[in-house]
Write a structure and sequence with these properties.
By secondary structure, the protein is mostly helical. The protein contains 5 helices and no strands. It is globular and about 40 Å long.
Length: 119
């Protein structure tokens, strides 16, 4: 957990948050909050993929926030990727596919995604 906290704080330290003012507890809370936000976006991405919701409506509503959040929390997404090539399941795979579809480029340089159809 400490490695994840340090990685996220280092990432945020390059943005609007001054990492020197964060206690270890607030750092952990920030990571937990980031994980919960990513879980919500994964839920939305899977709902779009399954055509349970209208992609255009969702994209018009949250695309900017989704893209910025993915950049800020990229380190959590990277740590969620499986290192076992025999295991195709990836944490946040829906986010990775949706990000690539909406931005015409992968979020993570080494990311290889399956082609998906757009609505």
């Amino acid at each position: 957990m400490k490695d994840l906290v340090d990685a996220v704080v280092n990432e945020f330290g390059q943005g609007p948050i001054d990492k020197s003012h964060l206690s270890i507890m607030s750092k952990r809370n920030a990571v937990q909050a980031g994980t919960e936000i990513l879980n919500f976006y994964e839920f939305i991405a899977q709902a779009i993929e399954n055509k349970d919701v209208d992609e255009k409506l969702i994209r018009d509503s949250i695309e900017r926030q989704f893209t910025k959040t993915c950049h800020y929390l990229k380190v959590i997404i990277e740590l969620g990727l499986s290192t076992d090539e025999r295991d195709p399941r990836k944490t946040y795979s829906g986010i990775l596919h949706l990000y690539q579809r909406w931005n015409s480029r992968p979020l993570i340089a080494a990311q290889v995604t399956q082609p998906t159809t757009t609505s």
